[in-house]
Amino acid sequence: MQRITTPFLLFVLAGQAMPALGHDETCEHAKRGAFIPSVRGFDEATGRDLRVYPPDRIVDLTHMRLEILIPDMNTPRLGATQTYTLAPIDKPVAEFQLDAKAMTITSVSIAGREASFEHDGEHLLVRISPPLEPGVPATMVTTYELDDPPVGLIWTPESPAWPGRAAQIHTQGQPQDNAYWFPARDFPNERLTTEIIVTVPAGYLVSSNGTLASRERRIIPLEELADFGIRALQPYDVYHWMQDKPHVSYLVSLVVGKFDVVDVSAGGVPMPVYVPPERGTDVPGTYARTPAMADLFARLFDEPYPWGRYAQVVVWNFGPGGMENTSATTMYDTAILAPDAVHDNDLDGLISHELGHQWFGDLITCNSWEHIWLNEGFATYCTSLWFEHRDGSEAYDAAILGAFDRVIESDRNAAPNDVGMGSKVYAHPWEVFRRAANPYPKGSSVLHMLRRRLGDENFFKGIANYIDARKLDTAETSDLRTALESVSGQSLEQFFSQWIFRPGIPRLSITLAWDEASRSLKASINQTQTIDGDNPAFEFDLPIFVQSASGDAGITHVVSVRGRTAELSLPMDSEPLVVAVDPSMSLLAEMSIDQPASRWATQLVHAPTFAARLQAARALGKSSDTRHAEMLRRIAVNASEPVSLRVEAVKALTARGSEVDVRSLVTTARDRWEVRQAVSEGIATLANRTEFKDRAAMRASIAEVLSERAQRDESVRVRAASLRGLGSMGAVEYVPVVLAALDLPSQHDQIRQAALQALADLAPPEGLSQSLRLAQPGTDSRTRAIAIEAASRMASQDPEAAFNALAPLLNDRESRTRRAAGQALSTLGDARCVGVLEAHLATRRTSELKEEVSRWIAQAQATQPKPR
Predict the structure, then answer these.
(1) Domain range for residue 741?
(2) Which residues are 132's β-sheet partners?
(3) Is residue 607 included in any domain, yes or no?
(4) Distance CA 851, CA 860 (A)
C-alpha cells in the first residue's frame, strides 16, 4: 500500500486569487522592493524604544481648503494657497508643526494673530502670538509653490515618445507622501473634511475627492501668471471639489488630464470611470460590475456605500495597481480591457479590492500603520466575497486557498528575529505593507478563519457593529476584536495574539493511519515550526472529517491542539474511505499529511468540500500509481469540473514527472485558457527536469508545441506562458519567434513582457540591443522595467552599450524605470556605476529614495572586481 505525504500548498488561478503576469491586482504597497526590516525595536547603544506610536494631536485640523493654480500642464510647477480650519484640543497652543516636504513656502498667516514660521524642507513649524485657545476655531493660510515634487504628486508632461498623449498629473499619498504637495499632519490618526479648487488650462479634466460643487471658465490676468512664464492670455477651467465627510490626509486625491468619462452606475450613486481618450466604449466590459459589488458589500456589512460618488480613474505612470483615495480610486495605466481581452483577463479582483477599501480604509482608517491589516486584509477579503457572490463557493475557496498559500510561503520566521503583522516595530511605514507576515493575504486569511469560527451570522453582525462604532473615525485591532466578542460571547484575545501580533504560522506534520489491531483510526499531529519561549506552540482546534466504508454522510471530529503534539484515536468498524483534514479551511497552517494514496484518490472524488478535493489532487501528484494519473487526467479534460480543480490536476500531473501524462493534454484539454496555460507551463517544467535534459526528441516536440501556442493561441496569457516556457527550456532554435513577439501589442503588454523574459533566458547575440530598445521611453512602464532587468542579465554582450543606455534612465520621469535602472547598474560590475549612483544620490529629495540609492551603491561596490 503506497502512502503519500504532501504539503497542503495550493496554487490557484491567477484570475481568481493571485495577481497574474502583466498586471497588478493589489493596491499600493506590496509592490516595491522590500525594505530591510527593523526587528529589534530599540537602539542598543542608548536603550531607546524605537517602536512607532501615533503622534500627538495638540491641534485638531477640521477642514482644508486647497486652491491650486496650474498655469502650464507641460511645466511641472504650481502655486497653491491652503486654508486650514483648526483648533487646539486641550491647552493653549503657541506653536505646532506640520509635515511639508520639498516645497517652497512663501507665507503663513493666522487670522487675528501674529504668526511666524520656519521650514526646513521637511517640517513647517508655526509660531502664534497670542496662543490659540482650546476649542476656538482659527484659520491658517499658507501660500507655497511646488517645483516637480519627487513623490506624492506625479507629473507626466507630453513627450515625443508618446505622440498625441496629453500631459497628466496624479497624486499618490499612501503612506505619507501627500505632504509633498500640501502641508499636512501626514499620519492616519487625523481626519478632516477637504475641498480642492484647481485651476487648469482649458480642456483638461480634474478629479478629486467627493462631489463637484462647481466648474467655470475664466481668463486669468497675465500679472498673476508672470512668475510662471506665461505671456499670452488663454482660458482656464476652475474645478471645485468638496469632500464633506472627514477622511485622512493620505487619501486626498488630485488627477488632471484628458479622459473619456463613462458612468457605470445603475441609477444611484454616480460611478464615473475615467479612461484614456477613445477608450470609453471599453469601460462596460471592464467596470460594469462595480454597482453590483457595491450592493453586495452594502448588504453584507449592513452599511450603504458611504460617499456621494465613486470614481475610478485610469492614469499614466502609476506605480501600484490601484489606490483607494476617498470616493476616487486611482487605477494603473492599462486597467481597461479591450473587447478581445475580456475572455482571458479579469480586473474584478482589483476593482473589488479598491471598492472594499471605501468601507475599510476610508470610512474606517487604521489609527496607525501597524493596524494596516484592518485596511488591506479587509479589502483583500472583499475580493473573496465578490468571487463567492459572482462565481459560487468554489471560487471563494480558491481565493482563500490562494491567500493561505502566499502566507505559507512567506511567513516563515519566528520571534525575536522577525515581527508579527501587527507590530509597531518599523523604520518606515512602507515596511508594514511588505512584511513576511503580509497584511494582504494574512489579514484576509484571519478574517476567513474568524468567519469559520463564529459562523456567518455572528461574523457579519460583528463586522456591522464594528463599522457602526468606528465609521468616520480611526480604528485599532482591539476595536474589531471587541465587536466580534460582543456578538459571539467568545474570548478572542488569544486568537488575535497568535494571528496578528506574533510572526509565523503552524507547520504541521500529520499522520492518518489505520490500526487494524485496535480497529481504530489514529491521527497524530505534530507542530514542527520553531517552538520556544518566544514562540510557544500555537493553540487551535483542528477539524478532521471521517467517512466510513458504509457510505454514511461522514462526521467531523475536532482535535484540540494545545501543545507541540496532539492525537486522536477513533474506533471504527472498518478502515475509513475518506479522512479529510480541515476541509473547510478553518486553520491557516502548512500541513504535511501522510495517508495512503488510495484514500487520497477517494477524497478526490468524494471529498466533503471543494478545498478538500484540491488538497487531494495535489497529493496525488506524488503517487506513482497510473490509475491515479488517469483520474487526474480525466479531471483536467472534464469541462464540467471547476476550472481551478482542472488546473490543479494539470499541476499534479506535472509533479508526477511523466511527460506522457501532460503532453496528452495538449490536444485534449483546449476548452479553457486557464487549463491551456497550465499545460504550457507544465510541459516546459517537464522539459527542464534533469532526467529529460538528454531526451532531444522529447524536448524538440515540447518546444514545437510551445512555439505554436506562442504564435497562435487565442489567449494572450497562454501565448505569454508559452514564450516564457521557450526561454526557460533554452529553446534557442525559436529565438526568431521570441524576437517577433517583442513587437506584438497585447493587453497589459503581456506578450512583449514574456518575450523579454524569454530573451534574457536565451541571450541571443541581439538580445541586449533589443532589450535596450524596449527600455526607452514610448514603451509601457512595466515593460520598460522588465526590459531593463533583461538588459542587465545580458550586459556582458556589450558592457559599454549597457552602461551608456542604462545610466541616463536614472533620471527618467517614470519611477519604475528609475528603480529598475538603479538596480541594474548596481549589478553590472562596472566601476563607473558607483560614481553615477553617488551623483544620483546627491539629487534625491526624499529619505526613502536616498536609502534605496544607498543600497544600490553598496551593492555596486560589492560587485566590483577584487584587486589581485
Answers:
(1) 624-762
(2) 93
(3) no
(4) 14
